Amino acid sequence: MIVVHNISKQYRKVQALSEISFSVGKGEIFGLIGPDGAGKTTLFRILTTLILADSGTATLNGWDIVQDYCRIRENVGYMPGRFSLYQTMTVEENLDFFATLFRTTIAENYDLIKDIYSQIEPFKDRMAGKLSGGMKQKLALSCALIHRPLVLFLDEPTTGIDPVSRKELWAMLQKLKSEGITIVVSTPYMDEAMMCDRIAMIQKGSIMTIDTPQGIIDKIPQKIFAVKADNMSCLLADLRKFESTETCHTFGEFHHITFRYDNEKLCDELKFYLQKLGYNGVKIKEIEPTIEDCFINLTDSRI
Amino acid sequence: MLRYLLEKEFKQFLRNSFLPKMVIALPFVALAVFPLIANMDVKNISLAVVDNDLSQISRQMQEKIVSSGNFHISGYFDNTEAAMKSIEQGSSDILLEIPQKFQQSLLRENLGNVMISANTVNVMKGGLGSAYLTNIIADFNGDLITKQLPETANAKPAIEVRPLFRFNPNLNYRAFMIPALVAMMLILICGFLPTLNIVSEKEKGTIEQMNVTTVNKHTLIISKLIPYWVAGFVVTTLGMLSAFLFYGMLPRGSILLIYLFAMVFILCISGFGLIVSNHANNIQQAIFIMFFFVVTMIYLSGLFTPFRNMPEWMQLIGNASPLKYFIQSLRMIYLKGATFMDMQRLFYSLCALTLFFNSWAILSYRKKS
Description:
heterodimer, A: 303 residues, alpha/beta, Rossmann fold, Alpha-Beta Plaits, 2 domains, 4-stranded antiparallel beta sheet, 14 strands, 36% helix, elongated, B: 369 residues, mainly alpha, abc type-2 transporter like fold, 4-stranded mixed beta sheet, 69% helix
């Protein structure tokens, strides 16, 4: 559905994207996972024909993003990270307006947006600017879907939204996927990555890895251990000083640590090392890596 | 497509709690209030009188001065110092001193001197006031000669200057200002508003949402401009209407000609606004850029001061100000009743500028996308 080949983009001195290549199949949910400023939005803007890439090519459904931009605009839904509908028009007027721009009507595609639009329909006479954050996103998604696009681009759709709305949104995306709509979604939240069919981890304008979420987890070579003790703040520094430590980061109530080499005895050595430094209640256990571990692992190994 | 976009623009415009009222109120307020303030006619000049003669002639002279309507006597003083003090305090503008034995020397020696001292901190009031006063006294002098000394008056045929003011016989400053004010309002409404509208869509990110639709850019821009063109015509009409209501001013020339020039001018100024909106990223920038150029345009246009007064190189720059042509044409239509043939050069210059600004706007828009 989407084929991206060696796309690069530079803003003045900042290399926003360098030689990005990937492809997305029809009906796939493809996640772009990366920190703020990784280049996700730039990539979206290039694929939705809003800006031109410096070099590289990309096609959507066989249409070139430069030559066939008209076809692409007809068949793409884009929901920018920032709410960008008309705040002084009502919910219904906004939806109606975007429907007419695409030469369609609300009634024609109502079945597609029904699940999400029915939740905001009680407020259809309210000005879009007066909606809550979650409702705004639902309206924006409805507007992006009203012309039954082949591909849906969602730029950080869940940023700044409560957990319930987030869950609803992801359930909606799964449903759209079953309708055969290809979805490209970006998010800074690692837990949402697990909901995608495949993810690309992106940082500083380059893709670090592309795989299914499980595939990425499986690819982690090292075992990961969670470490806990009484004095957590000093512990982090001391763990990093331990000679066999490769990476160590804090994750909630534990610190996650990986070692330079695999050795059964290392755990005991570490425990002994920590007790010698005077820590009480030291706990070390091996854990199943999460997608967040993978991301940090990939980030560290590139530095 | 354009219809739906226009529907949206009008909806947004009318829903704005502020703008529609402004468009209606602006011409009335501007024409009712501004001409009263920006008034270069000098009236109510306070005259301090030191009359050392206290004769019949000196009293007649004072009466003549007051009856002109431009002066009122702020006080009679015994000596020059006291009168000067009142000027320093600001209670008088001009001092008229009549020396002792003024009447006597006038009748006997045919010679009389008076002294006029004007406070010229306010150049307009001081300069014009003393000129008025000189005129009145000269006039009085003429009357005196014919009355008192008829034989000398006949014997000395003097050259009499009688100016005839064409097109604005009463030298009414308002007649000069009002057409220009209509032009200024059009700049505000058809230049500023669409620019700010586009830039605010940029700032809010809604333009992005429009750009991913199939609407092409020209349709989008035209949909932005049309509402303000309509507003511009409303403003022109209201402006002419209030010029008539408040000042009884009707154009001597054709009203259709005014609309023709207004149409081209609106196109021109909104094209200029589009250039600004292409280059500005937020409202703050847009307002500042617009302000800078509009104020420059106003000063270069000859709105307040005669265009030919400017240094020559400045006049060259001033030729790029569309306001200059529009104001000139409005004044010509209003005051002289000029026809299209009289104003061909103005019209084509305005058209050329319109073409220039709008092509620049279109080119710079393409570059950005």
